[in-house]
Amino acid sequence: xxxxxxxxxxxxxxxxxxxxxxxxxxxxxxxxxxxATQDRALYHFPGDHESWSGRLSDGLEGYARTLLLAALRRxxxxxxxxxxxxxxxxxxxxxxxxxxxxxxxxxASIALALRLTRPLLWDRLDDGVRQRAAAWLGDALxxxxxxxxWELFPVTVxxxxxEIGHGTEEARKAIDRGLERIxxxxxxxxxxxxxxxxxxxxxxxxxMHLYPVLHAWLDRDERLLDLYGGRLSRHLRDxxxxxxxxxxxxxxxxxxxxxxxxxxxxxxxxxxxxxxxxPGETRRLASGALKYFLERGAVDDSGLLxxxxxxxxxxxxxxxxxxxxxxxxxKAFLALLLPADHEVWTxxxxxxxxxREDAVTxxxxxxxxxxxxxxxxxxxxxxxxxxxxxxxxxxxxxxYSTATVPSRWYDNSVIVGSDPSRTDIVPLxxxxxxxxxxxxxxxxxxVTSLVLxxxxxxxxxxxxxxxxxxxxxRVTGWACRDDVRGEIRPVVALDSRLSGATGDTxxxxxxxxxxxxxxxxxxxxxxxAVRVDExxxxxxxxxxxxxxxxxxxxxxxxxxxx
Length: 562
Fold this sequence. Notes:
By secondary structure, this protein is of the alpha+beta class. It has helices spanning about 20-30, 55-75, 75-95, 100-115, 125-140, 150-165, 170-185, 205-220, 220-240, 265-270, 280-295, 345, 355, and strands at about 185-190, 190, 360-365, 370-375, 380-385, 400, 415, 425-430, 435-440, 445-455, 455-465, 470-475, 485-490, 500, 505-515, 530, 540, 545-555, 555-560.
């Protein structure tokens, strides 16, 4: 992908200015155009991959998500082409918006794009096309959504239809219904769960915050903007810590193929004035993520975003992932709604949190502990509260990072018997340098887990209860690539292969782990000392003299004293 030369004076860290973002958008738009159908209503990208919604829906997805990119770029030439596609689509090419169907998702992108570019696209359409388009979109107002971030798609469609005076009563009801629904999932401190349960991931930023904040901003509703903008601002305090020093987002959760869509809430905060981040920090985080992916194969030789993370990688896909799914990355180009003279573009970039200092940060809502080290820019996420409705390696492992990916060998797991599952996660608290949880494991066993973190070092303790005596237990650590080093050492009840067995009563297993990209890290033995006394209390002494005492019990949970 061709981008302008770096300008190190304006952007000493990534070199990315607004011109780089414009060039990236232009290149992505130019690359998709050959794959439009003759009537421009559908975009079918090459390859044999198809989502569970089918080829027609996938083609609509290609139109909708790249239209959003053209709208944010305000590319009038491209918008003329998309106007032709809109006219053909609503004349009978596109599938209807029905209950829990993928077209409901794409209708939100189309409505948002039309609202953002109304003088450039919508207002120039023939009246008949506008009537048919409004009627097609109108089905989104009453279509049943899945009980998750999908509830916000009718809100987004309703906002546009209300603005143009179409179906205003139904639009108002859809807006009120969706905004009321997400209140059930707001858990405080800027965090939502994406539907019932404890599903925490990047959907918080690119969906749960994005749509209500944009709706309030476009509606000029100061009351709603104060509410949702305040939540976004609080969320960004935590969110900014989930990017590595190299720009990499946390490799956790669903829909990772959306890649730099992770930057959308950063730009949204700057756009609406609801952010705790400085302009230079915002651009550093967002530009760092864009650069991270563009330099690592996210775009193929023909300029298309691939189905994967760096390059093609089907392990990060879901059944709903179609050939055009990666183009929800278009949300990142909210950046271009900020004018060239906005301070987010003119200020010098400032270091991201992971670059500034070593930090171990407790995030109470999802019961996460975020551990970062400035020497290598790595960020580690200790997960003691997030899970999907099923066992999912991107939700239920004990830890994730900006430099590693979950492996089929069950990294960051406690394997009881032969079962690596971790379900029914119960948060037991998070605090200064620690996080804990309980989960169900194989054979009816219960595992109470605690992590203590300092610098790059982790002490992991697991109390296994409810398993028959002699049940084998194995503890695993980080799955690493060549330029990152993972270490794990036995401390209590584990042999050199990190294996052990349960006793006649609850059994405590303790291991020492580390993930680092330092070329010559200090030996672990010099950084921490760990012992377990006769009563089962864990005593930890860090190299700076700090001491921690922790106890795990099956019934009462954990206690940590510093």
